[in-house]
Specification:
- Helices cover 53% and strands 0% of the residues.
- By secondary structure, it is an all-alpha fold.
- The chain has a domain of 78 residues.
- The longest helix has 21 residues.
- The protein is extended.
Length: 116
Amino acid sequence: MKKTTGLVGLPVMNDPINTYANLCDQVLEKIQFVPENAAYRTVVEEMYKHRKKVTLSGKTVSEIEETIAAGQIEELAVQARDELELIPKMREWKPWEFSHEIEIEKAENPTGIAKN
C-alpha cells in the first residue's frame, strides 16, 4: 500500500477500490435523473460504467490507475465527487434544452492551417 499520493492535500485512501467503486455507483445512480437523450448523461454513464468495471476487475490499484489512465485512484475519487456536485447543477441548468434554433456556420478552413 502506498504511503502518499505525492500530491499536497490529497491523502491516500484506506480502501481505494471499494471507495471508488461506491463513488462510481453514486454517479451512475444520480445521472439517471438527466434525460436519456442528453449527451452529458451518455458520456458520464459510459465513463463511469467503464471505470467501475475496471475497478472491480480484480486488478491492483496501480493496474486500475494505469488502465483508466486519468490519474491516481485518489484523483479519480476527487473527479467522481466533483461529478456528484455537478449533476444536480446540470439538471437545474438543462443545457440539453434549447429555446431557439442554433445555426452552425461551416468554416472553409476549420483548422486554420494555411494550405500550400
